[in-house]
Write a structure and sequence with these properties.
The chain is built from 15 helices and 2 strands. It is an all-alpha fold. α4 packs antiparallel against α5, α12 runs antiparallel to α15 and α14 packs antiparallel against α15.
Length: 315
C-alpha cells in the first residue's frame, strides 16, 4: 500500500505539464513572428487603421476644422443618388477598368511567356517591357503628349494629315470624345509592371521535367504545354496579377490629370480617385471624401474576391 502511494507521488512529481496548442505554436514560431512584427506594426498603423478611420468619417460631416458631425448615411445617399459628377466618374472608371484591366493582364502574361520561351536576351527583353512602368505617369505623359499634340506638329496629327485621313488637326487631349482613348493607350503601355515580373518569375520556376513528362503523354505544342501544364501551376501568380491589375485600373489618376488636366473637359477623364482628390484636398470635405474612398474600397474588394474564387487552388 505504501509502495503504491510512493509510486503515485513520484509519477506526479515527474509528470510534464500539458502544453496548449497556442503556447506550442508561439514557442515554435516566435523567431518568425519577431521578424514579422515590425511590418505588422507598420501595416496596422498605416493601412488597417486608416481604413477604419475613413469608415468612421464617411458617416460624418467633417471639414478638417470643426469637430466631425455624425450624419449617418447622408454622404452615401448624396454620393449615389444626387452626385451626377460621381456617376460620370464611376462610368469612366469602370470603362477604363474593363479595357485596361484585362488588356494589361493579358499583355503582361503573353510578354512574360514570350520571354520565357526565348533562349537568349531574356534580361534585355524583360527590361524593355518593364521600363515604362518604372517612370512616373507624369513623365510618361510628357513623352506621349508629343505624339498626341493638338497641332500639326504632333506626330499622330502629322501622320494622319500626310495620309489624307484628316484635314484639320484633332485636339486629342482637349476633345472629350478622344481624351479617354488617349489615357487608355498611355496606361496600356505602362501596365506591365509588378504583375509582369511575377508572371516571368512564375514561368521560370516551372519544373522542366514536367514538360518532358508531358511530351511522353503527347503534349508537344507550346500552346498545349501552356494550357495543360503552365497555367494550372501558376494559379498563385495569376491571382496576384489579377488583383494587381484591378487595383491599378481602379486607381488611375496621375496619367489622366497629366493628359487632360484637373478637372478634365466635360469630366471626360474624371475618375473615382480624381473625385476623391477633389473633395479631400480641394474642398476639404473629408467626410464626403471618405465615403468615396469606402465605395472604391468595397468595389476593389468585391472584384478581388471574384478573382480569388476563379484562381483559387483546389488542393
Amino acid at each position: 500500500m505504501s509502495n503504491a502511494k510512493q509510486t503515485t507521488g513520484v509519477s506526479q512529481v515527474y509528470e510534464k505539464p500539458v502544453e496548449s496548442k497556442a503556447h506550442r505554436f508561439w514557442r515554435e514560431n516566435k523567431a518568425g513572428w519577431g521578424f514579422l512584427l515590425p511590418f505588422m506594426i507598420l501595416f496596422l498603423v498605416f493601412t488597417v487603421l486608416p481604413v477604419f478611420v475613413a469608415m468612421g468619417l464617411s458617416f460624418t460631416d467633417y471639414n478638417m476644422i470643426q469637430t466631425p458631425n455624425f450624419t449617418g448615411l447622408t454622404n452615401y445617399r448624396l454620393l449615389l443618388l444626387e452626385d451626377d459628377v460621381f456617376i460620370i466618374a464611376l462610368q469612366n472608371t469602370l470603362l477604363f477598368s474593363c479595357i485596361i484591366g484585362p488588356a494589361g493582364y493579358i499583355m503582361s502574361f503573353v510578354m512574360a511567356w514570350f520571354i520565357s520561351l526565348c533562349k537568349r536576351g531574356r534580361g534585355a527583353l524583360a527590361l524593355a517591357f518593364y521600363a515604362p512602368s518604372l517612370t512616373s505617369g507624369t513623365a510618361m505623359s510628357v513623352i506621349w503628349l508629343v505624339i498626341f499634340s493638338g497641332d500639326r506638329y504632333g506626330y499622330l496629327n502629322h501622320f494622319l494629315i500626310e495620309l489624307g485621313l484628316i484635314s484639320d488637326p484633332i485636339l486629342w487631349c482637349k476633345d472629350s470624345n478622344y481624351i479617354l482613348l488617349v489615357i487608355v493607350v498611355i496606361s496600356a503601355w505602362m501596365s506591365m509592371g509588378t504583375g509582369f515580373l511575377v508572371f516571368l518569375a512564375g514561368l521560370q520556376n516551372v519544373d522542366p521535367e514536367l514538360y518532358e513528362a508531358g511530351k511522353v503523354d503527347g503534349i508537344h505544342n507550346p500552346l498545349q504545354q501552356l494550357w495543360y501544364i503552365t497555367l494550372p501551376l501558376m494559379k498563385p501568380q495569376l491571382l496576384f496579377g489579377a488583383i494587381n491589375s484591378i487595383v491599378n485600373s481602379l486607381a488611375v489618376f496621375d496619367v489622366a490629370t497629366a493628359v487632360a488636366g484637373f478637372p478634365s473637359p466635360n469630366y471626360a477623364a474624371h475618375t473615382i480617385v480624381a473625385h476623391l482628390y477633389d473633395y479631400a484636398f480641394t474642398r476639404f470635405q473629408m467626410g464626403y471624401a471618405s465615403a468615396v474612398a469606402m465605395f472604391l474600397f468595397l468595389l476593389s474588394f468585391g472584384l478581388s474576391r471574384i478573382c480569388m474564387r476563379i484562381f483559387r487552388s483546389d488542393d
